[in-house]
Design goal:
This protein has about 270 residues and is α/β, with parallel strands linked by helices. Helices cover about 40% and strands about 15% of the residues.
């Protein structure tokens, strides 16, 4: 299978002024399965992972409803308050849906100490009971705290979204390189090859992306990297066709088994799709 391991749908009417703002005119509209499905057919994508974009259980239920109606959605990564006193009950209720495969706190909006809080432990235990993965939406400054979290919860499958958003545009990636390598040394940690063009600037090129992508492939190996589009956020810097072509170029040095792993097999295993 070819799987897009990271995409979003949203309705502006549900967002009550949350991101995206009107200034981002390219993506300031509703995005629904009907907008994405022609692109999936064009690029022979068999399934997607639909990821939350609001810190809201209502948004998660909206996504699960879409998954009921659209077979192309192979898995949903939702949200609940992982520090709520009743977090285990909330997680169990969401996990009753067969396509809920992960949860994602929006860590990039929180300080580094949030993920170190022992108040997360009951929620993590519930995630393990229900075979859920943890999507880590982080910035480079969060990586040391994420490393401590991943060590403390060695049985929890973790995937770093968007290669942790290194400063590709400026090239200031030295600390990121060391921190991401430390996380890659843990077998429960994976990484999504997604979101990189929006970090590289509007004049991005494949060669500008290559050093960070090559580092991720080197430290994680072909078995723990998941390709994703980050559509429709992708539209801020490229379109689906251009990112797919860039991805093919960035992975061209790999053997066929490695490319198949990154373009789908790893996501299928991680999110239990197909």
């Amino acid at each position: 299978m070819r799987i897009d391991a990271h995409q979003h749908f949203w309705r502006l009417a549900d967002r009550n002024g949350a991101w995206p703002p009107p200034q981002l005119a390219t993506i300031y509209r509703d995005f629904a399965p009907g907008d994405l499905e022609p692109l999936l057919r064009e690029h022979r994508i068999d399934a997607t992972v639909l990821v939350q974009s609001l810190p809201s259980e209502a948004d998660t239920r909206f996504m699960l409803g879409l998954a009921d109606r659209h077979p192309c959605i192979g898995a949903v990564v939702g949200w609940t308050d992982l520090k709520a006193s009743d977090a285990p009950r909330r997680i169990a209720a969401l996990a009753a849906h067969p396509k809920l495969r992960g949860l994602r706190p929006m860590l990039q909006e929180l300080d580094e100490a949030w993920i170190a809080d022992p108040a997360l432990d009951p929620a993590v235990a519930a995630m393990l009971r229900h075979h859920l993965a943890f999507d880590a939406l982080v910035l480079p400054r969060h990586l040391p705290a994420l490393l401590a979290f991943a060590r403390r919860h060695a049985g929890l499958p973790i995937v770093i979204d968007h290669i942790a958003k290194p400063a590709i545009a400026t090239g200031d990636t030295a600390r990121w390189r060391g921190d991401i390598a430390a996380l890659a040394a843990l077998p429960n940690v994976h990484c999504k090859l997604s979101g990189v063009v929006t970090e590289a600037g509007p004049d991005w090129t494949v060669e500008r992306l290559r050093p960070c992508v090559a580092h991720v492939l080197e430290v994680f190996g072909s078995a723990r990297v998941l390709w994703g589009s980050d559509w429709p956020v992708l539209e801020l810097a490229a379109d689906y066709r251009r990112w797919a072509a860039a991805s093919e170029a960035l992975l061209a040095h790999m053997d066929e088994a490695g490319r198949q792993a990154v373009f789908g097999a790893n996501a299928g295993r991680f999110y239990r799709i197909g």
